[in-house]
Design goal:
By secondary structure, the chain is of the alpha+beta class. It has one domain. Helices cover 20% and strands 23% of the residues. It contains 1 helix and 2 strands. A two-stranded antiparallel ribbon has the order 1-2. Strand 1 and strand 2 form a beta hairpin. The protein is elongated.
Length: 44
């Protein structure tokens, strides 16, 4: 099973300030998506 979240939004546990974390897809993820022809639905 593979799991990737492009964006996570949460509150800082101490200050309560909003945090937004973002991560793109690395080369390994892109190879897997291309292998299954799922790249049409991916925002890079």
């Amino acid at each position: 099973m593979l799991l990737h979240a492009q964006t996570l939004a949460l509150s800082h546990p101490v200050t309560g300030e909003p945090l937004v974390l973002t991560a793109g897809l690395d080369d390994q993820w892109m190879r897997i998506l291309e292998e299954f022809s799922w790249t049409d639905s991916v925002e890079v």
